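Thought: the user asked what Sulfatase-modifying factor enzyme-like domain-containing protein looks like in 3D. I have the sequence; next I should run the structure tool and report back without guessing.
Action: structure_tool
Action Input:
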Amino acid sequence: MAAPPTPAAPSVWTNSLGMPFVRVPAGSFWMGSDESAQTLAQAFPRLEPKRFTLLGDEAPVHRVHIRRAFYLGQHEVTVGQFRRFIEASGYRPESEADGTGGYGYNPDYDPATTARGDAFEGRNPRYSWRNPGFVQGDDHPVVNVTWNDAQALAAWLSRTEGHRYRLPTEAEWEYACRAGTRTRYPHGDAPAGLVSEANVFDQAAAPYWPRWQQHALPGNDGYAFTAPVGRFAPNAFGLYDMLGNAWEWVSDWHSDTYYAQSPPSDPQGPAEGSVRVRRGGSWHTWAFYARCAFRNWNSPQTRYTLVGMRLVRETDEEDGIRDVPRESLSVPIETGAGPVKPIK
Ligand SMILES: [Ca+2]
Ligand SMILES: [Ca+2]
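Observation:
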């Protein structure tokens, strides 16, 4: 008897800065979440009920078609890759160019004594992508980078390589994160399962943040701060750390009401806005906020210890990259089931 076929390994292409990209095929998916406050309260019993009423921007769940395959960074952009970009281009990241710095972890910093009560010290010129206040190797995700810094990196790569780079759209990001799944997380709905799948707020991080200890997942993922990229299992598209490690900027402006008006094919987000979306949660993020559907946002100038990026390289006809036949992918792109509730 023949052995069952093994899923094809993703086709990986590496750019001039050493960033591996995997091809994400065109397809359709259900975007967003319309879970009720009651359902969420059962799954996350330690959270205050008001948190479950603030998720209106995740609904309605709506069908989205991604009409074109794209290459997505297999990992978050790393410190080493960002350094090579800075050295080759002469670009000055916003945190250094505007002189106000970034944010950082300082064990002596007391949020209770500050007006904003922020978890991290900043802005402060001692902090930037070079120093978030905790140790990072070159293989950790770069943080303290702004949406504008991501634009600069994409523009420089496009110019020097002749391929078109950009941030993913919010729809491309969620499609890539879900990789054929409909659940809260790619592994399923159970928050506790996330600790073995992603670097989030867990028992490794909790001792550094005693105030939020009760929100730490019960397991230990091994990382109190950022982890080297690719330490957890990839999703069905071969992508690592879509959830956790560092939040990832996407290209869209944020609007609370966008999903109700979103075009079904290749949505690009609102035409204008004041804040850009970030996705996926980070090493410091509670499981509730590391769901595939959760949306967060900041101004394009925001730099923070939790926020990094991952780039798209668009496909083109002449680049000689071997396209993976859709049939060989291990994930069903189309899910037969409709949304739990009818789309309004
Ligand atoms: Ca962790
Ligand atoms: Ca991430």
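Thought: the tool returned a structure. Summarizing for the user.
Final Answer: Structure for Sulfatase-modifying factor enzyme-like domain-containing protein predicted. The longest helix spans residues 147-161. The two ends are 50 Å apart (CA to CA).
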